[in-house]
């Protein structure tokens, strides 16, 4: 079985949010189209406490139960089967959806007999990259849908390095689905 994994498509990572991916809003229509192509759709959410070591490196973002942690209203989120929360403790960053504390994602996907993961979301250099690398380590055939991913672009070259790291680790990169 194949599944779609949407990484951190949340208000705080969109233009106008606390830690925006400059082109993050452009992937929403693409993700909405993808939602119709998959029977199983999992989405991760950054779900930080108000105080966390994570905010020593980054602006405060995606605080649990805040508007910034919500999915954007334009996202057809009713088609999401399961939501996992990550970065929920004050001592962790939660860059990968496989670090979710609300559900063991690897076991959940295995129980659903998922063999192939298609990954999209935000941001290329951090949470998407780490989720892809962990998906590969967990043994899933992993494909990244490039036109459904956007970077935060905090440092020049980081996004390109992330694409290279994912590909070298064994992920398949496709321009669109």
UniProtKB/TrEMBL annotation:
Pathways involved: Cofactor biosynthesis; nicotinate biosynthesis; nicotinate from nicotinamide: step 1/1
Domain Isochorismatase-like, chain residue ranges per copy: 3-174
EC id: 3.5.1.19
A Pfam entry, by short name: Isochorismatase
InterPro entries on file: Isochorismatase-like_dom, Isochorismatase-like_sf, Isochorismatase_Nicotinamidase
GO molecular function, one term: metal ion binding
SUPFAM superfamilies, A to Z: Isochorismatase-like hydrolases (SSF52499)
Any GO BP annotation: pyridine nucleotide biosynthetic process
Similarity comment text for this entry: Belongs to the isochorismatase family.
Protein name as catalogued: nicotinamidase
Organism in which the protein naturally occurs: Sunxiuqinia elliptica
